[in-house]
Amino acid sequence: MSGRGVERVLDMIEWFAASPEGASLSEIAAALAMPKSSALLMLQSLTERGYIHRLGSGEYQMLRLPGEISQDGRNYGALIALVSPHLSQAVQETGESGFVAVLEGQSIRYLNKVLPKREILYDRDIVPTRPAHKVASGVVLLAAGSDAEIEAYAASAALSEAEHSKLREAVASARASGFYVNAMGVVEGAAGAAAPIVGANGKAVAALNISGPQVRFVTNSDRISEVVRETAVAISEELARRGRRLSKGR
Known about the structure:
Number of domains: 2
Strand order of the largest sheet: 5-4-3-8-7-6
Helix content: 40-55%
Number of helices: 9
CATH superfamily of the largest domain: GAF domain
Number of strands: 8
Radius of gyration: 21 Å
Structural class: alpha+beta
Oligomer: single chain
Distance between the termini: 27 Å
CATH architecture of the largest domain: 2-Layer Sandwich
CATH topology of the largest domain: Beta-Lactamase
Strand content: 15-25%
Order of helices and strands: HHHEEHEEEHHHEEEHH
């Protein structure tokens, strides 16, 4: 995209930020003094990225500004960028591997990982998804939902009675402590702790996870769990502050 093209996209975003009530294609093109064809292409791109959406009336309205966390589960770029320095600090403090995860349907998807600089460490391929009830990140994100949502998950995942009972216990523990420790991970010989990251709207948007070799992790689980909880709280507070700033700027 040319320099002028970038300027026009920014002009459109800034215009939307000052015009939250929505507008038609003709109104947008006229306000920004650009051809309708160019305005439409930009609107389509911004819609695909989740910044704006098209109303039933055909008008376009802003959903979020750049830097705000997407609520539609499609765009995680802003979340990854915001969490990364906090994740790196948690890895440095614990000496174990760090991950950021989100709940998509019944599965946990890992967005990012940071590995410690040590010879023996825990690593995982973040491409495959994991059943939510089997990993610490999944437990804390399920725990952030309602009891009805958890029961719906259990039914949809066809959990056995034993698995269902174990999930209820894990959810209760996560809700009581603000984090969850999985001493026996999906990967044999691994253990991990996770805590929910809460967005500006008060809902859990992701989970921060620290994992390591089981024997070493269990020995230091109290300290690791506290770092996980404190880091997730710090990220949540930053999201809340950012949400307030962006709301004021509209």
